Input
Amino acid sequence: MQFKKCVLVLFCTIICASLWAIEASAMTALVGGTVVDLDGGSPLQNAVILVDGEKIVSIGSADEVSVEPGTEVIDVSGTWLIPGLMNMHTHYGLVLPGKMAAELANETEGELTLRMAQAAREVLQAGVTTTRSPGDARHGDIALMKAINKGQAHGPRIFSAGEALVITGGHGSEHGVEYADGPYELMKAARREISAGATWVKILISGGIATDGGDISKALMTPEEINAVVDAAHRLGAKVAAHSGSSNATNVAIDAGIDSIEHGYTLDRDVLKKMAKHGTWLVPTIVVSQPATADFFERIGSPQWYLDRRDSVGKEHWRALEMAIEEGVNIALGTDQLPHEPNDGTTATAREAQYYVEAGMTPLQALRAATIEPARMLEADDEIGSLEVGKYADIVAVNGDPTEDIKALRNIMFVMKGGHIYRNVIEH
Output
């Protein structure tokens, strides 16, 4: 059976048989919580958020918003309400070198499907209601996205780049295997991914940590190849994300009109200034190169060469993030790990946001990088990213004010996505 058909059948027959979300009634009222203002204003205390179906229909103080009889009332007092978190660099079918790769070497399409579906459910539990998938295996994330959109599975909103465009000998390639090379082959590959349902295209323009051999800071894709992909994608209304640890490659990509740079391991100040000027987005994934998250790599059994490559860019990666913040580069949170992956006593998503504060952001800026800024990058801020009337009811409750201490994101008490409750551990 074709992979996509296999995916849909499995979702319908297995996943749909065990849906566990608490369904919302036609009208739901969240009462008593404090709504955080992403623009830096005073929070709205003792608030009422009315949800009708999937959307927010009213927000105000308890003495301003009336709750009609028959409305399901949920007491969220003692919590701070924020938009659903977003993670812009998530691979649902992630396979990394070492023990993890060995264990998944013979994974069937059905097993991959179920692994990705399980990850999607756990992503919601971590308070992440929107993700971008910048390159995943066998279009599994596109099938997952379609199943979630149809209500056949539970998971976050997914914006997919399909399969990443790999060049022969480049990052993500296997030794002795030929991939798309030259502007015309890559242009066709980009069109293929968009035709499959991708709204982003992912190109790998420099070396990377997870590929053995080659300099992470070297430009590997030619200017002609980069320009061809960006032009082809933009003509079809898709955006382009570039894996890059190279200032030279990033400089070319900015001129080509690239939409986002992933990782930016060794970016210098000049190229970061240029990114700020052009409005190019940076998705730092700083969590993958910093010491506090070393347990993750031990857990998946990373080989020594992988750990050495990771450690070799850690300090430069950190300095690049600090300079990006100083220069006012647009930053959207992404982890390059599953959003819920345990790291340093919390999730990868919460730890990534905490790193942003440690690198120079205010807690409010870090919270925005996890909510409204990714929505702007996706050009979806008219529907998601903030708590406003008319937007989807993607709502998370935490037990502290994240604009005062970003570590509040470590304590996800309540998760609602599109009016459906997926987590509620608030005690009264």
Remarks:
- The two ends are 50 Å apart (CA to CA).
- Residues 27-84+385-424 form a domain with the Urease, subunit C; domain 1 fold (CATH 2.30.40.10).
- The longest strand covers residues 27-35.
